[in-house]
Each structure stands twice: as structure tokens, then as C-alpha cells.
Amino acid sequence: MTTRTLITGGLVITAADETHADVLIEDGRIAALAAPGTQEWSASADRVLDATGKYVIPGGVDVHTHMELPFGGTFASDTFETGTKAAAWGGTTTIVDFAVQTKGQSLRAGLDAWYAKADGNCAIDYGFHMILSDVNDRTLKEMDLLVEEGLTSFKLFTAYPGVFFSDDGQILRAMQRASSNGGMIMMHAENGLAIDVLVEQALQRGETDPRYHGEVRKALLEAEATHRVIKLAQVAGAPVYVVHVSAQEAVAELARARDEGLPVFGETCPQYLFLSTDNLAEPDFEGAKYVCSTPLRPREHQAALWRGLRTNDLQVVSTDHCPFCFVGQKELGRGDFSKIPNGLPGVENRMDLLHQAVLDGHISRRRWIEIACATPARMFGLYGKKGTIAPGADADVVIYDPAAEQVMSAETHHMNVDYSAYEGKRVTGRVESVLSRGELVIDQREFVGRAGHGAYLARGTSQYLG
Ligand SMILES: [Zn+2]
């Protein structure tokens, strides 16, 4: 039996258009848009959702999350269940998380482990990128197989020597492989070898507080690594996507490469747009809440990031959601900032913070949807199904109240973490209802979804290539 849901009276916003329209959903997909008040539709609908005075937007697509990630002797505190529920509360209906290859193991073994963590537990749809921590002949061959199966993006690191680090030769080989198999290489770009020297020297000087995390992970070392991975990609004839860009010098490297016509892409995250080294310097070890890599930068860098988002030198805002509780997890680094688990919670906050950026005049409404929904979907082979409201697309739809006010707080958020990086921040705009493939997950601020509704997404190759 066909189920029909009708969303009436809202302003439908996509990356391309803003239109007052009713949206008809049939069997989990968008069936059609029509002029408001189209009579024959409301007569035949099983369910009508009134969006008068609200926005009707595509569900958010967050292409950088780390649920349950093992890091620094502990695990990110959100499971796939708690993290995807929190994502839904924040208007995100798709995540792409990172499966991790353990050194010495196959990619397949890593992927199977992450499938097992996520399977049956997600409230929204999910996919995986693959973290390559051991590039060799065998894993290069495995990349081809994964691309064919719909796992089309691979992340490598110039940071974290001894853990995820790849040397330039390994990075080049992975990029060459991607250039032939259609995969996308994602790079964490910081010069990890140089940073480790600065970490050691800082600790020897007795500089152990969280703020030194920001000082040793220098903007120049992000810019250098960004430049290097762009050149390696150019030599390999491959595209490259630089994750969590935070330094204005790194934005400049991306802008220069794009001006040269290279297929170079960059994402930033809300923490770099809204927080700064002022937070890392908060007293009584509170700065540990803001330890992530790349690190928060001095406030002056924010203008370059906003400009990059407006000029399309940066194309995506993801969260790099990787929460660790302050009590018992962040505290592992008391007396030694290098032992603070790296990561911030944010999967629930991204759509709201970027809506606030619309009100603050940084970006337009359509650009909000573009950087948070449409482009991330397109970048990683999901567009058409995800990232827009158009006939044939999955009915991942958010009814968003642009006038509701909220105060962000750990008291009220749904992420499984004991602090909010935005505690006390007032923003205007809030999710009212969320549908995932036509099923209500959030119904007027009530969670009505379920773990296990979320399905694994096999992806195409990047829709920015070829
Ligand atoms: Zn990350």
C-alpha cells in the first residue's frame, strides 16, 4: 500500500531555489512539489504536516563523524545509536563516518568491524569513508574493490606519526590509485613529524596546559601540509579533499590551487567558525573541552573561513564530531596536553549554527543548504538521493522553525557527552520535525524514530569529477 505524506505551506529551500510549495512524499521518496494548497493532494494524503511559517529543507548531510572511534586509549563517547539520534535532533539525516584500517590488517577487516558497530543501531542513514593507515600493494588493490562496492573515499594523514601517519610516498601511491579507480582522497593536512618535535619541546619547558595544544600545532604546519598534499595530488593526477581546514594560510593554499583549475576541495567545521584559541585558554583545564586537530585558531582566522565559504574556496561544512567526556576522558590529559583525546561534539549543532550564520550575514539561506546538504552529498556520490528536495530524492526532509530561539547546553542536547562546546550560546532557529525516507524521526520536538531504521549507503564516486 502506498503511503502519502503531504507537507504544506512551507518555504522550500534547496541549494538552487527558494519556493513556497507543498511537498508530496510517496513511499519514502519525494514524489512532487506543487503550488501551495493543491486540493487533490490533501484529499488523498494519509498524513499532512503543516509547515506554515517554517522552512522545508533537505536533511543535513554530515560527511565527517567519528562515532565510537578508538583514540588515545579511549573511545569517542557517542555510539552509532546515540550519535545518529543526536544528529536527527539537529536536522541531519545522513552521516558518513570513518571505518579504520588497523596497521597490519586489511581494509576489509576494518570495514567489517565498523559495519558491525553501526548495523542495526543507526536512526538515520549512514555511509563510510575508509581510513588508510597502511598503504601497501595489498591495500592498494583492496581500494579498487571498495570503490566498486560503493565505498569511494579514503582518508590519509600527514599527522599522528606511529598511528595514522602516511609518508609522502605512500600518499602519492594512494593518490595514483584513486586517480585510476575514481576514488576521492581525503587528507588530514598537518605536518605531524614537526608537530611532535614541538610537543616534546613544549612539555620539556613545562608547558602542559590545553592551550599549548594550539600553539604547537602551528597554522604554518597546516599550510605546509596542505600545500604538499595539493602538489602530490597534482603529480598523481588525482582530486584531493582537505578535511577540517582551520588556518587562513591553508585556505589560501586551496584558493591558489583552485585558481589554477585543480580538482582541490576543502571543508571546515563549526568549531573553527565559532570558537577560537580563547576557548583553549579557558582556566582550570576547561580548555581541554576544545582540544581537537587541526586546532582552534586565533579569532582572526574566522573571517578567512567565512570568506572561503562565500567564494567557494571551501565547499563543505562538516562537524568532525568526535566527542569525549570532560570527566574521565578529556581528563586523561591533565598535566600533559598531548594526552587529551582530540575531538569535539557537534553533530547536533551544525545546522543550527549555520542557520545563525545566515542571520549574522555570513552566508545566504541557499548557501546554508549548499554547504550543509547539497555539496557534501555531491562530493561523496550521494546527490540526487540525498541533499536536495526534488522528485525521486529520498524524503529526508526537515521542517525548520527559523524564528524559534534556543540556548545550546549539555543540559538539553542529545549527544552522549557531558559538556557542550557552545554552552550558553543563544541561536535563532530550531528543528521542528525530521523525516528520514518519509518516516518521522522527530515529530514536533519529540523523538519518534528508532535505532535500526538507518540504512547503509553504498555511494557513487564524487559527482564533482569526470
Ligand atoms: Zn576527523
Automatic annotation (TrEMBL):
- Write out the entry's keywords from A to Z: Hydrolase, Metal-binding
- Does Hydrolase count among this protein's keywords? yes
Q: EC number(s)?
A: 3.5.2.2
Domain Amidohydrolase-related intervals: 55-441
Q: Which InterPro entries does UniProt cross-reference here? A: Amidohydro-rel, Hydantoinase/dihydroPyrase, Metal-dep_hydrolase_composite, Metal_Hydrolase, Metallo-dep_Hydrolases_sf
The cofactor(s) it depends on are: Zn(2+)
Q: Which Pfam families match?
A: Amidohydro_1
Top enzyme class of this protein? hydrolase
Report if keyword Nucleotide-binding is assigned.
no
**Classification via CDD domains:** D-HYD
MF (Gene Ontology): dihydropyrimidinase activity
NCBIfam families xrefs: D-hydantoinase
Homology family:
Belongs to the metallo-dependent hydrolases superfamily. Hydantoinase/dihydropyrimidinase family.
State the PANTHER family in the record: COLLAPSIN RESPONSE MEDIATOR PROTEIN (PTHR11647:SF1), HYDRANTOINASE/DIHYDROPYRIMIDINASE FAMILY MEMBER (PTHR11647)
Quote the protein name from its UniProt record. Answer: Dihydropyrimidinase
Name its species.
Streptomyces polyasparticus
Classification of source organism: Bacteria, Bacillati, Actinomycetota, Actinomycetes, Kitasatosporales
